[in-house]
Amino acid sequence: MKTVDCIVIGAGPAGTFCATTLASHGMRCVALEKRNPMAGKVCGGGISRYGVRVLEKAGFPIDQLLQNGVKIERDVRIRDGQATAHTHWEEEPFEASFAVGIRRDILENLFLQYAIRHGVAVRLGCQVSRIERNNSLFLVDDYCAPNVVLACGAVNGLTPCKKLPAGISVVCKSEQGPAHSFVFDYSKPYDGGYAWIFHVGQNLWNAGVWSRNPGVNLKALFQHHERTCLRKYLGGNVVYAQSPRGALIGAGGKMPCHETGMYFCGDTARAASISNGEGIPQAVLSGIQTAKNILADGRNC
Prior knowledge:
Elements: E1 2-3, E2 6-9, H1 13-24, E3 29-33, E4 46-47, H2 49-57, H3 62-68, E5 70-72, E6 74-79, E7 82-87, E8 99-101, H4 104-117, E9 121-124, E10 132-134, E11 137-140, E12 143-145, E13 147-150, E14 166-173, E15 181-185, E16 193-201, E17 204-211, H5 218-234, E18 239-248, E19 258-259, E20 262-264, H6 280-297
Parallel strand pairs: 1-12, 2-3, 2-13, 3-9, 6-15, 13-20
Antiparallel strand pairs: 4-8, 5-8, 6-7, 10-11, 11-12, 14-17, 14-18, 15-16, 16-17, 19-20
């Protein structure tokens, strides 16, 4: 049994930034991630101007995002069939002057390497099904620690996941599309949500729909998006580079911020925005705040 100061379950955005913050303050931290390699997720590759600013303030090198993704310099907003474009964004205190589109698997691997460079031990392919407690220590896999962080998404087998908003995302391949742009469709069929398309790489576009209404027929909304927005902006010869995938979004639910020695962050803590479904900056901030809580509570080996 290996003893560390903190075990983080999940190496997504919340888990990696929580672990990185702890390691930067001298704590021995291991992140356990069930995926190996870090692939499969489709949602969450659009980093808003607010998200870019959050990552910048967290110390993440923004040039890595731009080297591996697409600089987004305008957005197109559709309401009731009418599209308006917004360009030449000005830099504001809480927002950068640009956004970034990037494939989610690339983004998560960048975050993972960032954590490793800061001294976080990472174990991929580690499926956690049970957390045990022995006096003041948590026992997870072959590690024990006085602190454990659940940063393992909205659906994890360890916490409840009823009545959460959801979305469907896909990565499309097309030789045409709205370059360096976000496209948001707020038309009536998406009442309580919206549809989107954004540029993530050469001839690659992330597209999808989300709704804060748990009872909505997402498949029907996505099919409507395919018939309208995707056909209009990407043309008729769209190929899926990553097939449509549905996902619950950790937003709007009520979860404890933390209890003695056990902490929740990211989608596990329902940190995503209930107003627009955005999750990356909220996950990063949640991970950093959770690390601060652990440091303030002062439990280490």
